[in-house]
Amino acid sequence: MRVRLVDVVVAILSAAAILHCESPVKNDVGPQIRLIAFAERSAQGKSGPILLQVYIVNESPATLGILNDLDSINIPQSLPHGGETVHDSDLTHIDFGVSGSGTFIQVAPGECVKTTLLLREEQFALLERVKQMKAAVKFRDGGDQAGEVTTVLLPATVYKINP
Amino acid sequence: MLHSVERKNLRSRDESSTRKTPVPSRVPQAKGCERQTAYGNQAVLRMLSLARTGPQTKLAISQPGDRHEPGDAPVQRKCGCQARAAVDEDTPLPEEAQSLGPCGDGMCAACAEEAKKKKDVDAKGAVDRASFEPRFGYGLGQVRIHAGARAASDGGRGNCPACADGALPAHDAYTYTFISRGSYGETTPGFTRPTCAAGAGGASTLVAGSAAPNVNVFPNGTYQVRRNDGVVQTATCTRSAAGLALTQAHENHHAAGAQAGVAAANTAQGLPKNFATPAACGAALPAILTAWSATVDAAWANEIAHGPGTSPPTAQTFTQENAAGTCAFA
Which residues in chain A have their CB less than 8 angstroms from residue B297's CB? Predict the structure, then answer.
């Protein structure tokens, strides 16, 4: 079986992020969900799309129904000074709309769903610089398919994948 | 091939000058040419040039259409543009071919590229024709498949009259499955936090915060789609006026939310507020700023999470945009 280098990098970075990231990505109350994002220019180079692959990881002890789609991302306009957190009011809001193809996926503890967005050149450059973003994740508790949908705004570290 | 002919002629001249024997020529020699062996080639040429008589010197290959040498165009085609000439004798030669460099296998680089494209298109075209001719009820044998640089500028319609009026867009031959999409709008709130400013007579004013939102609506939508033959493509579509209006309204809603958040925070903190001295203002600022920021953060967080009271984002409209023929695929 062939293993792509990109997959190996993603796996290593994901593990590193899970092991070393601090608690801000977790909620103190309710289910714990973590976001990890990877920005990647396609193999076609300048002419191809720039992909933002966002992994939504269920780190709670229970299964969650997580929507495998994001309707927006939010990027800070500047890097925070050492130790400072980015205020939500400093985020530029970028709308991607509703794809219509998103569904709530039952995600067991320790597993994740992945969603992919296309970035514009300037958005990629900004993410490459600040290396962080926030996104609103929608989920339902447990296996309840008709339960109330909760939305949480979660931070993510963004890694650029080098070709 | 012209270059090999030229090389052969050059070799003959070299050999002739070494052996000092006249070169046989199909062109009757002019009077001055009899002196060639006595004075040398260059001297004879100079004399001929001064006298404005004698045989016409060989045309540069970059001068097609000379009435004295009407045979040059076919030679050019044969040498530099075999592939192009085979397609259409009347089509003007590409610029690259008009200034022929080293000819390689007898084809300039541009023509070799064009020949390859035509070969690829022909191979694909045969498969497509077998599939689509029965459906269209129309033979496509006379439709020139257009795969050059112009194809990008005319939307791939080539010279098909039925396509030119939008009745039969080329992309209608495929169906697409949506994979992912790009952004269609963004809003930067442009918040300015309250600050202390000097007032009259040594007093200080804690100036109210503000928001100057910047809304950006993108005229194009970008989508990653999978064609029904399995090829993944990036589609860039010109958004419809209706779609743009919905996006504008959505982003304006975010902008209004930012301004409302600031207004609420200023009111809650009683801003602007006057202080007797700058020091007093500075002392009060941290607490006011913390409370002000908490209010504004909450308001903006509600906007960016599309929380209560915010309009849901507009659905992407690849299907509609593609149906309208506004998408370019790469």
Answer: 87-89
Asked whether the beta carbons of residue B306 and residue A71 sit closer than 8 angstroms, the reply is yes
CB A158 within 8 A of CB A10: no
- Which residue of chain A comes nearest to B188, CA vs CA? A92
pLDDT at A145: 77
Of A72, A89, A120, which has the smallest distance from its Cβ to B313's Cβ? A72
Among candidates A87, A90, A116 on the partner chain, residue whose Cβ is nearest the Cβ of B180: A116
Question: B153-210 pLDDT, tens per residue?
Answer: 444 444 443 344 444 444 457 899 989 999 999 999 999 999 999 988 899 999 999 9
- % of chain B residues with pLDDT over 70: 48
Closest-approach residue (CA) in chain B for A136: B305
d(CA B217, CA A123): 14
Task: Locate the domains of chain A by residue range.
Answer: 5-161
The whole-angstrom separation of Cα B114 and Cα B81 is 9
| Residue B128 predicted with pLDDT over 50 | yes
Using alpha carbons only, how large is chain A's radius of gyration in Å?
16
What single-letter DSSP state applies at residue B313?
Answer: P
pLDDT of residue B165: 43
The verdict on ipTM greater than 0.85 is: no
Residues on chain A touching B293 (C-beta within 8 angstroms):
87, 89
Instruction: Kindly identify which residue of chain B lies nearest to residue A149, measuring between CA atoms.
Output: B307
State which fold the A5-161 domain adopts: Immunoglobulin-like (2.60.40)
Residues whose CB falls within 8 Å of the CB of residue A35, separated by 6 or more in sequence, listed in order: A25, A54, A55, A56, A57, A135, A137, A154, A155, A156
Expressed in angstroms, the distance from the first to the final Cα of chain A is 21
Interface test with B, best of A87, A89, A123, A153 (most B CBs within 10 A): A89
How far from B7 is each of A161, B3, B13, CA to CA, in Å?
Answer: 54, 6, 10
Taking one residue from A and the other from B, the number of pairs with CB-CB distance under 8 angstroms is: 119
Does the distance separating the beta carbons of A117 and B180 come in below 8 Å?
Answer: yes
> pTM to 2 decimals?
0.62
Q: Is the pLDDT score of B55 beyond 80?
A: no
The answer to whether residues A25 and A92 touch, using CB atoms and an 8 Å cutoff, is no
Most confident of B40-49, B117-126, B253-262: B253-262
